[in-house]
Design brief:
By secondary structure, the chain is of the alpha+beta class. About 35% of the residues lie in helices and about 25% in strands. The radius of gyration is 33 Å and the shape is globular.
Length: about 725
């Protein structure tokens, strides 16, 4: 049985929900187009499902019998030899059309070929209907500033109904005017100067005709015939406008495209002499931290003013939870794309480089918020900019106008005088980490001061960082060795009062649903850094990780600005793909971030990459047009084998082996023979390269097969 993911058209919302449940369809919390696929995310930004565009095909059956229903279409498809879970039908402006979308890349073409058979009525007893193959939507390959794009809104407009007014003057001449339907004789006369007023006014047609809501309902019915709506059609409230303008949002972007194609310039259902105008409304939404938006406010307003003449509207929503939400909207996608480019340059910031201009500026001292703030805040205030430190990437970004940002970068470089020799590290064991977060860190700060000391959770193992002379480092070591605690120490409250990442009083505090408080920057940096470590979902790490509350997607979205949230989802998707090497492969084109599903059994199939347009054999991962996999391997085996042998020699010399599952190169320097692949998270025996899903069976194997976890080291 082919698993069915349906596109629902023309069914009330309650029926849509029931149909989805009945068809066993996964209703995602959040979906993104990433890596050439639809990726569904659940709580904690965990990947719930990956559906490749190439997994599906969609077909339409046109001119089907008017009385046929879903069951009839299902029977029709079954008689043709196809097995599907369900179908969905609709009526589009009098045309009966069944839309069938199936998780089978060859289904649509096969159905199309079936209906092209001129003998179909004789062989199957089925009328020769018309079938169409739907082309998949193009992949959004925009690589600029990450934000939420929305192309599901439509704008509908039509002329307001008018009535005819006949104005009679003394010479028996008659002037005909079209006036709003609610206009009265008095309204008309009052608008004309006293000396020019007519002798009489006669209204032809209905007066006080105000049926805007009825018109909206009729237009909405046309939209619902195409697909379910997330937001009902709502008209503007401008009484002086000559046209009614209303907006609706579909659940599916494809439905919005179909609505424009089928309904634009069609006669109105309530006035055959006028036509409906319908277009898609493209929008992009950004969420920006308050202090960053303050730095780019003037430039953003200039950008908004520039593009307003191109009918790109901007909206700014009230600040909430430390963030400002911005939205750009336009009926023309090309104009919105240009506006997004300009807005992206402002909102993504500018990476700060060192004096040589080649490497990003960074010092471990920026891991310490107190020291970073002492250096950065005066520069921010002087030059009206905002800095953002990202310890997980060892990068600093500056936000503001170009000239102000340049002056701020120069000032930062001039003040930059840290030397690595003055930064000391103390790696923490599980016991010393427990001591540190239960009061030991505060004890060191009481002696050395808050500024020179920081607790770095982004590194593995976790560590204390001491900035200053060797004597400060020795003092910290002495406090750690003696297990000293603060003079006024309350074991139950020290940890709860601090940010769970840096263990200092939360700066720009962010309170999550479980009640714990983080520094806003710490929250963003830490949870971006741990994506891909193999843990299922993002959880609160308060109480030394004992809280373990799984963050909902909505909570993560509320607590993160646009770019970190989207990067979090992208990193989670990439990690998921790497950890499932048997299910997904990467397009071999350098820098192409598109995946496909390999063909491990059965006949080879060609994969056409939407990211780079390259064609690849999904069986062997090579482009060998006109040759079989075996022929390609034969013709390339000589030179490839020589190169592989030389590469293997180098890897053996360096102590490098390949993961048996995903082929990622792994290097072992010391320790036991249990290795964990950083890409797919497989647990590997270094001696024989057997892979396991968990560490325990790996250790059992090493003890049983190799006599211990340290024996038989191939190095």
């Amino acid at each position: 049985m082919i698993r069915k993911f349906v596109e629902v058209f023309g069914i009330p919302r309650t029926e849509v929900t029931d149909a989805l449940k009945g068809a066993n369809v996964f209703i995602e919390e959040e979906r993104r187009e990433l890596l050439g696929a639809w990726v569904d995310f659940g709580s904690g930004a965990s990947v719930q499902n990956v559906s490749l565009f190439s997994d599906f095909s969609t077909a339409s059956i046109l001119d089907r019998p008017a009385r046929s229903d879903v069951a009839a279409v299902s029977r029709l498809i079954s008689r043709l030899g196809f097995e599907i879970a369900s179908t969905t039908t609709t009526r589009l402006r009098g045309l009966m059309c069944a839309i069938i979308r199936v998780e089978d890349p060859g289904f649509a073409q096969s159905l199309y070929e079936k209906f092209r058979d001129p003998n179909i009525e004789e062989t199957s007893g089925i009328p020769r209907l018309k079938a169409e193959v739907h082309k998949p939507l193009n992949l959004n390959t925009n690589k600029g500033f990450t934000h939420r794009a929305n192309r599901k809104k439509v704008i509908c407009s039509w002329h307001k109904p008018k009535q005819l007014a006949c104005l009679t003057f003394g010479s028996d001449s008659v002037e005909r005017l079209y006036v709003p339907p609610q206009a009265t004789k008095g309204d008309i006369v009052s608008k004309i100067p006293q000396k020019l007023r007519p002798a009489g006014v006669k209204l032809e047609g209905l007066q006080d005709l105000d049926n805007t809501q009825g018109e909206v309902d009729m237009i909405e019915a046309l939209l619902v015939d195409i697909g379910p709506l997330e937001m009902r059609l709502t008209a503007n409230a401008d009484p002086d406008s000559k046209r009614v303008k209303a907006m609706a949002r579909f659940q599916d972007e494809a439905d919005a495209m179909t609505a424009v194609r089928l309904l634009n310039s069609k006669p109105l259902p309530f006035n055959k002499n006028d036509k409906l105008s319908i277009s898609r409304l493209h929008s992009a939404t950004y969420k920006v931290a308050n202090h960053i938006f303050s730095a780019v406010l003037l430039d953003f307003e200039k950008t908004a003013q520039t593009f307003r003449s191109k009918r790109v509207n901007s909206k700014r929503f009230p600040s909430a939870n430390g963030y400002v939400t911005l939205r750009l909207e336009s009926e023309r996608g090309v104009d919105l794309a240009a506006a997004k480019t300009h807005a992206g340059r402002l909102l993504e910031g500018r990476l700060v480089y060192d004096a040589g201009g080649k490497k990003p500026l960074w010092s471990p001292s920026f891991n310490n918020k107190s020291l970073a703030n002492r250096r950065l805040r005066p520069i921010e205030e002087q030059h009206k900019v905002a800095f953002q430190c990202i310890p997980s990437k060892a990068e600093i970004y500056v936000f503001g106008s170009f000239d102000a940002s340049q002056r701020a970068c120069d000032a930062l470089l001039q003040s930059f005088s840290d030397k690595l020799s003055m930064i000391h590290y103390i790696s923490l064991t599980s016991e010393s980490l427990h001591w540190a977060i239960r009061g030991g860190f505060k004890a060191i700060c009481e002696v050395l001061g808050q500024e020179p000391v920081s607790l770095n959770f982004l590194e593995t193992p976790k560590r204390l960082e001491i900035i200053g002379p060797r004597a400060s480092f020795d003092t910290a070591i002495d406090i750690l060795a003696k297990g000293r605690l603060p003079q006024e120490h309350d074991n139950t409250t020290v940890a709860e009062e601090c940010c769970p990442v840096c263990w200092t009083t939360a700066e720009n505090p962010l309170k999550v649903n479980c009640g714990h408080v983080y520094c806003r920057d710490c929250f963003e940096n830490f949870y971006q850094s741990i994506v891909g470590d193999g843990e299922p979902g993002i959880r609160c790490l308060a109480k030394e990780g004992a809280c373990n509350n799984l963050f909902s997607l909505q909570e993560l979205q509320d607590c993160l600005s646009s770019l970190p949230f989207e990067e979090l989802l992208a990193a989670a998707a990439t990690s998921h793909v790497k950890s499932h090497p048997d299910e997904f492969r990467w397009c071999p084109t350098p820098d192409c971030q598109t995946i496909y599903r390999p063909i491990l059994q059965g006949p080879p199939r060609i994969f056409s990459c939407q990211g780079c347009s390259k064609t690849i054999c999904a069986s062997c991962n090579f482009d060998h047009h006109g040759k079989t996999c075996a022929e390609h391997k034969y013709f390339t085996s000589g030179a490839a084998a020589d190169a592989d042998r030389e590469f293997d020699k180098v890897k053996k010399k360096l102590g490098i082996k390949d993961c048996p599952r995903c082929k990622t190169s792994i290097q072992k320097s010391d320790g036991c023979n249990h290795m964990t692949c950083s890409a797919c998270k497989a647990h590997i025996c270094w001696v024989c390269l057997e892979a396991f899903n968990d560490s325990k069976p790996c250790y059992d194997h090493m003890n049983r097969a190799h006599g211990g976890i340290f024996s038989g080291d191939a190095l």
